[in-house]
């Protein structure tokens, strides 16, 4: 087993370091004017994941997250998608 994150094959290798933290992009979804990306963080005592939201070439949101926080975001968003789908049907 390796400590290197498994990166989605559709993502070009993007790794960078800032203030002793190393970020590795694992997944990326691009649209016409925005990009959502997420990956791992090495060097932080608690937060091991990040979420980056970019619009028109500018990063508007960059969150460092614990795995449970990332799961809570996914749970909230899947809940709202489900609720919206039920309302529309």
Description:
- The protein is 25% helix and 43% strand.
- The protein is an alpha+beta fold.
- It has one domain (15-88).
- A 5-stranded antiparallel β-sheet has the order 1-2-3-4-5.
- The chain is globular and about 50 Å long.
- The model has no long low-confidence stretch (mean pLDDT 91).
* Overall 3D form: globular
Give the neighbour order of strands across the main sheet: 1-2-3-4-5
Distance between the termini: 45 Å
Total DSSP E strands: 5
Poorly predicted residue ranges: none
* Strand content bin: 35-45%
Biggest beta-sheet profile:
5 strands, antiparallel
The residue fraction in helices comes out at 10-25%
Radius of gyration: 15 Å
Residue-averaged pLDDT: 91
Query: Could you spell the SSE succession in H and E letters?
Result: EEEEEH
Coarse structural class = alpha+beta
Counting structural domains, the number is 1
- The total of helices stands at 1
Strand and helix layout:
Elements: E1 15-18, E2 21-30, E3 34-42, E4 49-55, E5 58-65, H1 67-88
Antiparallel strand pairs: 1-2, 2-3, 3-4, 4-5
What would the keywords be for this entry?
five-stranded antiparallel β-sheet; alpha+beta; 25% helix; single chain
């Amino acid at each position: 087993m390796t400590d290197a994150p498994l990166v989605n094959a559709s993502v070009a290798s993007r790794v960078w370091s800032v203030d002793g933290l190393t970020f590795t992009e694992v997944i990326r979804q691009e649209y016409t004017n925005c990009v959502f990306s997420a990956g791992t963080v090495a060097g932080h005592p608690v937060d091991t994941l990040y979420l980056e939201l970019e619009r028109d070439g500018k990063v508007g949101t960059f969150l460092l997250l614990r795995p449970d926080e990332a799961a809570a975001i996914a749970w909230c968003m899947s809940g709202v998608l489900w609720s919206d789908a039920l309302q529309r049907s």
